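I can't quite decide. Please look over this sequence plus structure tokens:

:::
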Amino acid sequence: MHWNAEGVMNKKTELEHIWHERSINVCCIQETHLQMGKTFKVRGYQCFRQDRADRRKGGVLTLVRNNIQACETAVHMEGAEYQMIRAKLNDTELQILNFYCPNDHPLSLDTIEVPDSSFLAVGDFNSHSQSWGYSQMDRRGEEVEDWQDEHHLILI
């Protein structure tokens, strides 16, 4: 599951119901608005969380079911915010990029180490392209499409 929360704390109870009812294994959340030093836990899930230190908004959070082996392998919180999670279930290993970038910050896509296979990138890139439903493409949309093409990624 992928979701731009625009604040997660006041929606936690409803979200927990959805996660458990739908048996969500991994949930990538952007714009959590969580503050450092405040606890956010979800029963049955590992919480990989990165809060923005310099202002109240932003932040990314990846929740992974406890029965899935997972670890955070990369974090970037300067301008664009992202975390890379490696998750392994049985014999399948997947690298998951949880990405958020405010529209007034550079995308910093060149800082992401994209693996050759088993990679899923989700997030809010604040970009426009006809490829994902907008009537026009903007500069950021071009940048995301170029990044996608360069790394042979498929848009779903």
User: Anything to note?
Assistant: The two ends are 13 Å apart (CA to CA).
